[in-house]
C-alpha cells in the first residue's frame, strides 16, 4: 500500500498544474495495478480545506469533489463510512468538513459526542458544548 500526500491527491482532481496532474494520474494508475493508494484522514481533511480556503472553491464544488473522492475505485479511504457521514452533515451544516469528519471518527471509536466551543458544529448531534 502507498499513502498519498495531499498535493498528489489534489492533482488527481484539480487540473491546475497539468504536468503534475499527469504525473499523479500515471503514478496512481501504475501503483494500483499491484497495490492500493491510501488516503488517510489528515490528507482527506487537508484536501477539503485546500479546496475551500486556498483554491476558493464554492461549497457545492467542494461537495462534488468529496463525492468523487469517496467514489474513486483506485483509492483506499481511511474511515470511509465516517467520511461519508461527514459529507452528509457538511452539505447541510455550518461547520467545516474536518469538524464533521473528526466527530464521525470519534463516533466510530465509541465516543458519545465530540466536545467543542465551535457554535457552527453544534448544529450536529455529534457535538456537545463545553459548559
Percentage of residues in DSSP E strands:
5-15%
Give, in spatial order, the strands making up the sheet with the most strands. Answer: 1-2-3
Which whole number gives the mean pLDDT?
96
| Largest β sheet strand count, sense and barrel closure | 3 strands, parallel
Which class best fits the helix and strand makeup? mainly alpha
- DSSP summary, beta strand count: 5
Computed over alpha carbons, the radius of gyration is: 16 Å
Quaternary state of the chains:
single chain
Shape: globular
Q: Helix amount, in percent?
A: 55-70%
As residue ranges, the low-confidence spans are none
Number of helices: 6
Describe this structure in words.
By secondary structure, this protein is mainly alpha-helical. The protein has 6 helices and 5 strands; from the N terminus they run E-H-H-E-H-H-E-H-H-E-E. The protein has helices spanning 6-13, 18-34, 41-54, 59-71, 80-92, 97-108, and strands spanning 2-3, 37-39, 75-77, 114-116, 127-129. Strands 1-2-3 form a 3-stranded parallel β-sheet. A two-stranded parallel ribbon has the order 4-5.
Amino acid at each position: 500500500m502507498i499513502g498519498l500526500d495531499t498535493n498528489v491527491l489534489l492533482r488527481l482532481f484539480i487540473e491546475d498544474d497539468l504536468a503534475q496532474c499527469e504525473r499523479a494520474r500515471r503514478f496512481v494508475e501504475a501503483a494500483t495495478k499491484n497495490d492500493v493508494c491510501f488516503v488517510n484522514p489528515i490528507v482527506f481533511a487537508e484536501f477539503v480545506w485546500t479546496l475551500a480556503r486556498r483554491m476558493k472553491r464554492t461549497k457545492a464544488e467542494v461537495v462534488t469533489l468529496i463525492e468523487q473522492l469517496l467514489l474513486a475505485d483506485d483509492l483506499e479511504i481511511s474511515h470511509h463510512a465516517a467520511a461519508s457521514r461527514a459529507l452528509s452533515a457538511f452539505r447541510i451544516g455550518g461547520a467545516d468538513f474536518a469538524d464533521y469528519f473528526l466527530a464521525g471518527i470519534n463516533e466510530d471509536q465509541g465516543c458519545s459526542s465530540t466536545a467543542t466551543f465551535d457554535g457552527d458544529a453544534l448544529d450536529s448531534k455529534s457535538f456537545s458544548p463545553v459548559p
